[in-house]
Design a protein that fits this description.
single chain; 490 residues; alpha/beta; Jelly Rolls; TIM Barrel; nine-stranded parallel sheet; four-stranded antiparallel sheet; 11 helices; 25 strands; 33% strand; carbohydrate metabolism; polysaccharide degradation; GH10 domain-containing protein; endo-1,4-beta-xylanase activity; GH10_dom
């Protein structure tokens, strides 16, 4: 192993505030060949925390972005290493900037204001054109543009409390298990879509958009039991029937498909069908149903800096392999990040650097299965993860794999057995209100002006005359390219 360089950071005490030191950038090159270069943060007490990876090559500079959440205030070391001990690592323009939690939150809020909201000014006047001082303006969201949803399972079909809980909060979902192959074909040749069909009918009746999860799962342990004993020839025939069956059945019903789940960590189908197995599945799914976004869905890409297999760089490499395969031209590809965070402080600096890198593809990014493992600070950490995702301009949707205890959500539980909010549930409800669902009420000033900052989406705006109490309602669509405008209301 080659250690390229050693830097002693200049951090001071900072009154014991938790810091988010972020390695803003570092350019790397090798003396020969190519290899993975990693950054390691080492505290004075010996704690070692991985901070990111990049493939460095001879003859060109590669950018490594990463960071670490450090719950210590003493000086620490930054080391860069490669696996090949025979090469030299060259580094240039390495920078590090520390942030307090308050500073980090301020940056998030500024990004949300810039990326998710627009300022709207109403001018309320009477018929003769005079300013209507004191007029009340209420903007109620009819449809928000940012998908913020929650996983759903079969308990929704029979549990009315679960139905009420879900419908009062979410318009986007993913069925946690019910569409998977091991659920729809428990016995070979006996397909049963009764449960996912019923769940899809429920979502359609209640105007809920559904992500399809999943067509295939590359983990050998997650195949239907009967699949595991098939010959390669029989497996190929069974897989062909599976993809044609499930995709054709739900054609036009879903907004997305997780086509091949977790194939950075696992390679069951590649082992059986060859290295292009995943790409062929994407091409076939696109052929059968060309409209949904086709996701590469993976874990630990942003949540665990020590998992090199699923690093943002390797994720992009795998995605490029799929997109270069014949038959996928024109496919609406998307980046799916499961975001299952373990207990303990999430590494938001690493999460942000990963999102930054993945966003350079120009493809939409979704957090597809957000959860945070139980701990005394679970609610706090869940809020940090959700805010970080929502504030990032590359993220276009968030689905949590969480919910009420009655539906069996025991990892990130949002409501107890009596449907009373847990602390994590309080966080989610707070963010739902904060991100635009609640009514916005303002009063016109002496010039009839009302200024409101609204999240992207469609609104019903009601204006009430302060003297006659008569009202008028108009529709307003606030989009990302919406400039601040003055909207006359008479």
């Amino acid at each position: 192993m080659t250690v390229a360089m050693l830097i002693i950071a200049f951090l001071k005490h900072f009154e014991c505030l938790v810091l988010f030191p972020s390695l803003q950038s570092g350019w790397f090159q090798l003396s020969e060949g190519s290899d993975t270069v990693s950054v390691i943060f080492k505290s004075k007490g010996g704690e070692i925390v991985p901070g990111g990876h990049v493939i460095a090559k001879h003859g060109c500079w590669s950018l490594l972005k990463g960071g670490v959440v450090a719950n210590f205030s003493s000086p620490f070391e930054i080391l860069f290493k490669s696996k090949d001990s025979t090469v030299e690592i060259w580094a240039d323009n390495v920078s590090l900037q520390p942030f307090t939690k308050r500073q980090w939150r301020s940056l998030q809020d500024a990004s949300i204001q810039r990326e998710r909201k627009r300022k709207v000014r109403f001018q309320v006047t009477s018929i003769n054109g005079t300013a209507m001082k004191g007029a009340k303006v209420i903007a109620r969201s009819a449809n928000l543009s940012f998908p913020f949803g929650c996983g759903m399972n079969h308990y929704i079909l029979t549990n009315r409390d679960y139905q009420s809980w879900f419908l009062s909060r979410f318009k986007f979902t993913t069925f946690t298990n019910e569409m998977k192959w091991y659920s729809t074909e428990i016995k070979q040749g006996q397909e049963n879509y009764t449960i996912p069909d019923a769940m899809l009918n429920f979502t359609k009746e209640n105007c809920i958009s559904v992500r399809g999860h999943n067509i295939f799962w590359d983990n050998p342990k997650q195949q239907p039991e009967w699949v595991k004993s098939l010959s390669t020839k029989d497996l190929e025939a069974a897989a062909k029937r599976r993809i044609e069956s499930v995709v054709t059945r739900y054609k036009g019903e879903l907004i997305a498909w997780d086509v091949m789940n977790e194939n950075l960590h696992f390679h069951f189908y590649e082992d059986n069908f060859g290295e292009n197995a995943s790409a062929m599945a994407y091409a076939k799914a696109y052929e059968l149903d060309p409209k949904p976004k086709m996701f590469l869905n993976e874990y630990n890409t942003i949540e665990q800096s020590g998992d090199e297999a699923a690093s943002p760089f390797n994720y992009m490499k795998k995605l490029q392999e799929i997109l270069s395969f014949p038959g996928v031209a024109g496919m609406s590809a998307a980046i799916g990040l499961q975001a299952h965070f373990a207990a303990g402080q999430p590494n938001l600096a690493y999460m942000r650097s990963g999102l930054d890198l993945l966003a350079t593809t120009g493809l939409p990014i979704w957090l597809t299965e957000v959860s945070v493992a139980p701990s005394p600070n679970q609610a706090e950490y869940l809020e940090e993860v959700l805010r970080e995702a929502y504030s990032h301009p590359g993220v276009e949707g968030i689905i949590m794999f969480s919910g009420p205890a009655q539906a069996g959500f025991n990892d990130t539980t949002l409501a107890d057995e009596n449907f009373k909010n847990t602390p994590a549930g309080d966080v989610v409800d707070k963010l739902i209100r904060e991100w635009g669902t609640g009514p916005h009420t303002c009063t016109a000033d002496d010039r009839g002006f009302v200024d409101i900052s609204l999240h992207h989406g469609d609104y019903d705006v009601t204006v009430t005359n302060p003297l006659t109490h008569s009202s008028r309602t108009l529709s307003l669509s606030v989009k990302k390219d919406f400039l601040q405008e003055t909207i006359p209301v008479k």
